[in-house]
Amino acid sequence: MKDPLLQHVRAPAATRTLSRQTPRSSTRRLPGDCAQRAATMTGGIAGVERFDSPGKGRGLRVTRAFGVGELVLRSPAYSFVLSAEERGSRCDLCFTRKEKLARCGKCKKAFYCNAKCQRGDWAMHKLECSAALAFKENWCPSEICRLVARILATKRAQKERCVSEKILLIDEIQSHVEDVDNERRERNEAEVAGLHRFFSKHLEFPDHKDLLALISQVACNGFTIEDDELSHLGTALYPDVALINHSCLPSVIVTYNGTAAEVRAVRSMEPGDEVLISYIDLLYPTDDRNNRLRESYYFTCDCQDCRTKSSDKAKLRVRKRSDPVEPQAVGSMVRYARKTVREFRAVKHIKTPGELLEMCEQSLEEMGSVFEDANVYMVHVMYQAMGVCLYMEDPEGALRYGEKIIKHYSKFYPPFSLNVSSMYLKLGRLYMGLERHSEGVSAFKKAMAIMEVAHGKDHFYLTELRKEMAQR
Which residues pair with 257 in a beta bridge? Predict the structure, then answer.
């Protein structure tokens, strides 16, 4: 079962730590083929430039003014892979959702819009085609494993700097391999084993150390390609976009048009302003956000919101009672809430939907004795419960939770947040399905107002949404 909240927690990964400077890229000695590509093609992206960001290492800044909703940069993927769960419903090359896709006649696992898409993907699909046929039901490489295989094949065939490396070469991406803990190191070793098991006939691998470094690069810098409701479609690597540093007060947002990444301004920027995205879900209080950043990206954020913890009070709302809740009781309930989040994540693929829903309801009852509904931990569990209701095809139950969630989302997220627009889309489609058309149209319009900034007014998702509204 998909976890609708945790799907979109994964975000563009860090290229630099804030806690320690990394050697400047200009002084690094590049591998021979990398150096040749750098010399062969120099360039840049109009309106932005690479620079040394104080305290962060490399970064990206604008060289001219950008207004809200303006496209800052667009980058094709260096390499990408469609999620196995989406195969059969989307084209493996362009990620278009389409009925009656053409299936690969050999392995029967890849699907395409037409022969043109199939030919376009063959250079990558051939890495998997015969192996998938040979392994049959035992064909099970992870998504990271499949993406790394494609990156290796791309690097081997590449002679010049490609269009996704206008500012940063793939070999310059930070790996943080020296920061990896034992648990992640074991996972990376498992990915190495998977590569050798499933792809050894079609690939020549670098030495073990370099392969681990590449896997770590992808783990830290891979982007999750998502649809309009933030459902996971696949994973990709965009070297130029990976140069953008993190802030809990982002200036831009990354969305996807097919497999291309598009970066748009969500607040006005002046020449010299740093381009900043959020690597994580911003719903949570400061300590939770920084714990996630340290665990996944090896740094602590020093943005104004993190320094002042200015939003924490609103996010950790406690019920007003005649006898105020003691600080110890609040702290105990916060620990309970964090434990609940971890436990749900651990059992979501094990327990039945009914059991998961009961778990959510019990947690909400327990936390509700101390927390207000507006507390982010309450909102988190409501979101999980909504996802379970959707999975169980219980639209009334999903709507009941969704209506509570949306009251608080716009307060907790920055302007033009995809978390907010995706919730309005979900609500709009639930309303429409329940014949509550005026409420559905209202929700869709609120989603569109955000998406026109985040995705651009001419994006396919907006075109389809306008058709959806007209048909209803």
Answer: 260
